Records
---
Amino acid sequence: MTDLHRLSIRELSEGLKQAQFSSRELTEHYLKRIAKIDPKVKSYVTVTAEQALIEADAADVALKSGHAHVLAGIPLAHKDIFCTQGIKTTAGSKMLDNFISPYDATVVAKAKAAGLVTLGKVNMDEFAMGSTSESSYFGATGNPWALDHVPGGSSGGSAAAVAADLAPIATGTDTGGSIRQPASFCGLTGLKPTYGRVSRFGMIAYASSLDQGGPMARSAEDCAYLMNVIAGHDAKDSTSVNKEVDDYVANLNGTPVKGLRIGIPKQYFNVAGLDADVKARVEESLKKLEEMGAILVEIDLNMTEAYVPTYYLIAPAEASSNLSRFDGVRYGYRCENPVDLMDLYKRSRSEGFGAEVQRRILIGTYALSAGYYDAYYVKAQKVRRLIQQDFLKAFENVDVIAAPSAPTTAYKIGANLSPTEMYLGDIYTLAVNLAGLPAINAPVGFDKDSLPVGLQLIGNYWSESQLLSIVHQYQQNTDWHTKRAAIAEENA
Ligand code: GLN
């Protein structure tokens, strides 16, 4: 079979169960594609071919027994921020270029337990700080829709791998948009769950009060399958919430679009940098949802201007604390021939971290320092609460909130945006993390350069099922999610 990479997760699951193909055949098919096509896309940092085939054979045994998990034997790629026992985990940094974790992240362990086959680890912005994946120590990844453009970030490798059909699904993480924005740039569906829904254990920390893992795939249905595996309470993550997990697949048609109240924040559609094509595609998608029975309601989100400054204070503050563990002593990069302990710390960190990471550590350390703590950090936390209240007030009147996922489509590689220009590109995604809410990106068309545009739907706490269901029904009525980049059409 030459077109196994065109099958959805449900079709793969059925094909494996009915023995139309084996997990070994499917895994070899993907490994072949990676070997031929990934040198152009550069989405993988590490390909675990040998291990993948062992896992595939084990899945085939389980499938024969008739007791396999519904996803057994299906390959996936993990963002290189999830610790994988025995396999290098770099977080896109020179600091961890040689780091082999002694344990699996909970997300990885759950995927393994379900019999999913790990194809490898995919590229990302260094320590998940960025929106282009260019800050990776391992170099830039190409956007499958136009290889001289970025796939977005920080989960750019995950997005590029799925969009080029080099993995049917991938894990990502989202601290301020890193699942939704690359999904938007690469024409994929990506879900950022409610904070606490997916365990952060073994997920290398960027900003712990904002970080959340989630699925990236072609469709809401594919995302739902992966969510069913990775969601849930974990005693090893004290912020994971002990709340029953929905069956996201069973609920795919569970939320009626008819009568659904969709909030359209006035402030979001008047943002200076909002590209005209992005605006037009998002408005067309809302029109479509309206045709399907949804009611569009204009709402106010008055704190919009505060999103970027608040996030870019809190996230670096938490990062400066989290990244203090990389000291050249215990694990990670260590400089050559240190003259004393201070020299070891200083040089290990200045040689091991890239420019963006160092910038954020400096900003965060400053914001947390004794003289400025109240003026910056405490103030930002208060504004954060106001942002959350703004959303809760909106949800008294609407079921979900619609927005673009990003003000533009994918940038050119090397566009060299200034840090502030890049931060402003996060305007639509940051508040969701500050408030801890779930949100989803769905592809809704293309701009004049044939680059994908994404619609974001933001839900109230624990509404992952509703978000997946709304997008699923939209996808039953449209075909944007079935469009494939030319490179994905290439055969290995
Ligand atoms: N672009 C944002 C940042 O650089 C978000 C990144 C993320 O979600 N990990 O912080």
Note: The chain has one domain: 4-261+398-489.
---
Amino acid sequence: MEKIKTRFAPSPTGLLHIGGARTAAFNWALARKNRGVFLLRIEDTDKERSSLAFEKAILEDLQWLGLDWDEGPYRQSERLEVYQSFFEVLKKKNLVYPCYCTPQELEEERTEALNAGKPPRYSGKCFFLSPEERRRKEAEGYRPSWRFRIPSGSEISFFDLVRGKVVFHPASLGDFIILKSDGIPTYNFACVVDDALMGISHILRGEEHLSNTPYQILLYRALEFPLPVFAHLPIILDENRAKLSKRRGDISLRSLRERGILAQALFNYLFTLGHSFEEGKEVLDREAIVASFSLSRVGKSGAIFDEEKLRWMNKIYLRKTPWTTLRGYFQQLQGEETLEKLVEKLGSERFTRLWSLACEEASDLRELWQVFRGFVEKSGKVVLEAERLEVLRFLRKKVEQVPCWVNEEEVKSILRAWQRESGVKPAMFYKTLRLVLIGREEGPELHRLLFALGREEFLARLSDVAKDEEV
Ligand code: GLU
Ligand code: ZN
């Protein structure tokens, strides 16, 4: 079989979003699975909207996700003469014609068509200009854009690896611009030339590009390029089944990363957006994902971006990740105070125990930090009403009688015995204890928290609260 070559071709007009990341991930996985090549191409022909800063951010985000590329990045803005040469080919073949319509004229045509209940496509009127009329327009200083003439005749069909046979009728297509009046190629044109010259065998992209595909196929035919395989990935919807990009434009990789979603978790999550694994499996490591990835497992219907599910997955990865791997993130978050210093302060054993307790509660790094801080810092002033003050007094007395504790199980039975002896209802007893320890009533299992904190710290916190309350 011919070598598989895929590409990701972002326009650097914004940050990388969930949809783009999914496209990149699927192209990457298809290449990796088949020991093919994954290429990166920056589609930056829109000078006004593209920026180097966005380009840089996109590359960084891809690296963060671990989507390494084998070739590129190429930049379309540096390949203008390539497109020009293929434009000349089309011109020589008489397949394109100059269009002198102004933006206003085109807009009027569009409105007219819409008012008449017709699809708003270009009428083709400049195709009918005589050489005489063209000369006159040129003499008047008009710079034309160039349109590809849709050939009349048979339908355009292709076999989409996700959607099956897709058919377009030429009558539904309008003559489209391939070169703008400033000589810059349009997306459809530059994309086809590049995909063909770069030897792309499989084009995986979002369903929103499906309507571009018939135009691109016409260009492949006109330029006598072999046709690649197309696969259009299902649109990503939000929880309300609205198009994600419209309603939730905020879901850039950056924002997820800043909120403390781990790269491995997001990477894994992307493969649940329109793709499924055997036996309903969802959490798989990188190697397993590559090995099981298949276009035959990509569905046609919309994929739902469910942030809760992403957080659920993140939690799973959070528990698996040693704190040392996360240093960089926390360094940003806390400025000067490094995790190393905290390890020193708490002692490595206590640090590790509290850290893993916090990991069980938190579903992103930001939360993890909050929960962890809550464990290690003395909570703000807690106000205890009478019944709780009783519990506090009781605990202070009791803990004096226990010289040390050696494991969680022991703490568990001590706690149970204390609660019974106190005569206070379990809920009240344990909630008060949590309040005293970490300033909130809900939280980790107490015997684990107490064991992680250690007896000395427990005593210190009891005394702190007691001092505040003048018990
Ligand atoms: N630059 C296009 C985009 O970002 C690429 C589309 C394609 O993959 O053909 O949507
Ligand atoms: Zn025109």
Note: The longest strand covers residues 37-42.
